[in-house]
Amino acid sequence: MLLDDQIKRNRWKSWALFSGFFVVYAVIGAAVSFAIAGWEWHANLVVFAIFAAVAIAVVGFTLFMGDDMAVAVAGGRRVTDRKQAPELWDAVETMSIAAGLEMPRVYVSADPSPNAFAAGRSEAQALVCANRGLLELLDKEELEGVIAHEISHIRNLDVRLMTYAAVLAGSIALLSEFVLRGLIWSDSDSRGGVIGIVVVVLAALLAPLAALIIQMAISRRREFLADSGAAELTRYPQGLASALRQLASSQARPAHDRNAIAHLYIVPPRLFKEKAAGLFSTHPPISERLARLDGLAGGQLHTHRPRARTAAMEEAMETSRP
Amino acid sequence: MLILIIVLAIIALVVIWAIVTYNRLVSLNVSAEEGESEIDVQLKRRHDLIPNLVETVKGYAGHERETLQRVTDARSAAISAQGPRDRAAAEGELSQALGRLFAVSEAYPDLKANQNFLELQRELTATEDRLQAARRFYNTQVEALNTKIQTLPSRVVAGMGNFKQREFFELEDRADAEVPSVAF
Description:
The complex is a heterodimer of chains A (322) and B (184). Chain A has 322 residues and is an alpha+beta fold. Chain A has 2 domains: 123 residues, no CATH class; 172 residues, 2-Layer Sandwich (Zincin-like), CATH 3.30.2010. The longest helix of chain A is centred in the N-terminal third of the chain and has 36 residues. Chain A starts with a helix and ends with a helix. Chain B has 6 helices and no strands.
C-alpha cells in the first residue's frame, strides 16, 4: 500500500536524518578543534566532547520541543477556544474526525500571507498553524481542503520528519554562523595555522549546504500524497485545488523570512521562493499538483464556486424556498 | 531431515502471516468501533440541540405546528432507531425535517434576527459537517474490514477469529430526496 510505504519511509528517514545530523556535527566539531588546537590530542578531545554535548542537547531539544520551536518561528499563537477562530477550529475538528485522529492543537499566526503548516512529534502530539491571511482569503470548502492536506501530513507522519528537519537544519545554520564569527576574531595564526583556516572555511560553507540538502531531500512527493489524502478526507478535491490556485497567485508577502520552516508550509513562502527559485525547491510546482488533483476530481476540478457545496440542511432550505 | 525443516519453515511462515492478518483485522475492527462512537457523539449532540431549537422557533412561529411536530417526531424516531441502516434512515428523515424548519423560518424576520436561533443553526450545521466526517471515516474502515473478511486468504483467518462484517452508515443523498413542498 502506497500510504503504508510512505509511513515506513518516514520512520526510516527520521533515523537517517538524525544520523546525518550527527555526522555533519562531527565534521564541524573536528574541523573547529583542529583549527583551534592544531594536532593536540587532549585539546581536540575536549573540543570534540563539547560539540557532542551540544549535538545531543540539540537532538533532545528537537525530539521534545521541535513542534513548539517551529510554531514559534512562524509566530503562531495558540487558539484554545473555538470563538477565537471559529472557521479554522471547525475545519480542524471536522477533518481530524474524518481522518480518525485526535484533534491537533490549533495556532494562528498574524502573518498576512495566505499559508499554513502542520508540525508535531506524532499523531497525538501535533499542531496545525494557519496564517491570518489564509483565513481571510479562503471560503469554507477551500479552508477545509488546506486543513485536510495538513491533517494528512499528520496522519502520514510527515510532520515528525519535517519538524525534526526544520529544527536540525536551523541548528546547523546557527552553528556555521558561530564558526564563521569565531574565525573572524580568533588569533588563528598561532594555533592551527593555514590548514585550520581552510578546514573551518570549508566546514562553514558546507554547513548551510547540508541544511539545504536536508530540507529538499524531505519534501516533494509527500506533498502529492498529502494532496490526495486531502481529497480523500474532504471528498471534494475542488476545494483544495481552488485554494492552491489562490495561494500560488497571492501577492501578499510574509511578515518575516521563515526559511527554517519553509518546507513545512503548504505552498512555499514567497520570499523563500524568490531566493531559491527552482534550484532548491521544496515543493512540486502548483500546476503539477493541480493536474494530479484533477485526476482525482475526474476532470471536474474547475467547478468550485464559493459555497457550491453548502451543508445539506442549507441545501434543503434552498430547494424548498417558495 | 531437509524436508522436515522446509515443512516447519512453511508452517512458521503461515502462522506469522495468520497472526499479522488477525492483528490487522482487530485494528480495523477497533477503528470501526471508534468511528461508530464518534458518529454517536455527533448524533447525540444533534439530538440535544433540537429541543432548544424547537422552543426558540415556537416563540416566533408558533402556528407552524406541523413543521415543528415533524422535527420532534423525527428526533424521537432517530433516538430510538437501532442498527446502522435504520439509524441512518431515521437521521436522514430528521435532516429533512430540519431543512424544512429552516426553510419555514425564512418567512420570520424576527426569528432570523434572533441570536439564539442563529447560534443554534450554526451549531447544527457544524454538527452535520462533523457527522459527515465521522461517517466517512467509519465507512472507510468498514469497507477495508469487510473486504478482508470477504476475500481470500484473509477470509480464513476472519472465519476462525469470528469477525463479523459491519454495515455501512449511509445517510441518504439529499439530491435524490423528494423536494419538500412548503405551504405558508
